[in-house]
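job 3f2a | input accepted
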Amino acid sequence: MTPIPDWQSKTRARGDVEPSIFLVGFMGAGKTSVGQALSRRLHWPFEDLDDRIEEKAGRSIEEIFRVLGETAFREMEHAALRDLCEELRQSAKVVALGGGAFVQPANVALIKGLAAHTVFLDAPAEELLRRCQAQQKTRPLCRDVSQFRRLYEARRPGYLTAARRIATQNKEIESVAREVACSLGIE
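job 3f2a | predicted structure (187 res):
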């Protein structure tokens, strides 16, 4: 029988659910891809907060930004995260946050209120930009190279407040998922 990792035994002893895992980082960090791989590895449900926002709004993130603006998007993001955090009090999930979610103080407070694990998936700006450009996905805040770099530099200090940091450059998705699990003592 495999022993239960210390963080699991403490939460189970209190009758709580296991702490959820929030993957944070900039556009192109691999939050969704790594989150899906980690979810399969742990046999936990996966949720991408941006997907939840799109479903509730009935619009794409790009359309929300274009029609309603970033302020309205951030309000929707916070409401979606608040609802998700209530659900996470009942069962753990692997969660991928949007690139700007973890740098909003109100969102960080919600996550800290759960005592969840936060993992910053990190890579250099040039690598993140290359990944974003290789994807067929339209990103509202990824239109201009200099704006991309400025936004990355502005957000990075917020990402660094996550409990763990995993470098993703030149690594396969499954390798990063394994590294996240190991860093949390799950594997």
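job 3f2a | The chain has nine helices and five strands.
job 3f2a | closed
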